Amino acid sequence: MPLCQRVALCLRCLLPLLLPSLTHAALPRAASVPGGVAVVSLGPIAAGARPPRAWLGKQPVLVAADAGQWVGVVGLALDTPPGTYALRVDEMEQATAQGKSRSVQFRVDHKDYPAQRITLKDSSKVQLSASDLARVEGEIAAIQAIKRHWRDADDTDTDFVLPAAGRLTGRFGVRRFFNGEARSPHAGFDIASPRGGTVKSSAHGIVLATGDYFFNGQTVFVDHGNGLISMYCHLERIDVQTGETVGKGQRLGLSGMSGRATGPHLHWSVILNGAMVDPQLFVANPGRMN
Ligand SMILES: [Zn+2]
């Protein structure tokens, strides 16, 4: 028998053994800092056991299998103060038994993000009119609700592909000051995709919402399950509809500069348990911008 056939046979035999650990083989890189992702061990996987449920405050968090352990994959918002936090973990041993809760502590360390100071001559772009402000406040509330969305799934893919081709032009977490006034930090990743460039879904999922927002312009949210959501902004055209299933790498629309953008680019954000986290942690080779 040729070697390749024997190898194929071998792999087929081994596959059932390998699968439990392969299911979540590519977790995001752990970075237990504001804007990062904490990977918290929740204990060994017992044979036949269902994954435990884990909560950070009132927000459920993603639980994955990794090297024989259950781990909580916890998104940490940029404004998380460093310190000690605890996940509440509910064991789901038997459908009939009462789940028992325990607490698992983890640390969040300090991280310094660079500052960027921008001077704009047209102050109307810094100071919003009353009507723009009212619109923005409504949109912030709507986006907050989208960010907290939860859907149980057993196939959440955390190994993302870059959603567009182009140079990286804006890093996550940069603290921005317009004409000396502090603005919200940059909660995403900018790729210099040209007008009309293809914007792809970073993993498979379900289109959670689309919208046309004051700052973010034409935007698509894709729900990957278990509180993992990706967001694509400033699009020139949206090609998908809410509720549609999309595959990894499937086109969502075309890049542009809708909303408040100084030039065409894709702003890409990743949301985990309601927190905007660094998208680069989900990409195997973030240095490659092809
Ligand atoms: Zn951006």
UniProtKB/TrEMBL annotation:
GO terms for molecular function: metalloendopeptidase activity. Coiled coil: none annotated. Residues 185-279 form the M23ase beta-sheet core domain. Residues 32-96 form the Peptidase family M23 N-terminal domain. Keywords: Signal. Residues 1-25 form the signal peptide. InterPro entries: Cell_wall_metabolism_enzyme, Dup_hybrid_motif, M23ase_b-sheet_dom, Peptidase_M23_N. Pfam families: Peptidase_M23 (PF01551), Peptidase_M23_N (PF18421). It comes from the Bacteria. Gene3D superfamilies: Glucose Permease (Domain IIA) (2.70.70.10), Peptidoglycan hydrolase domains (2.60.40.1590). This is Peptidoglycan DD-metalloendopeptidase family protein.
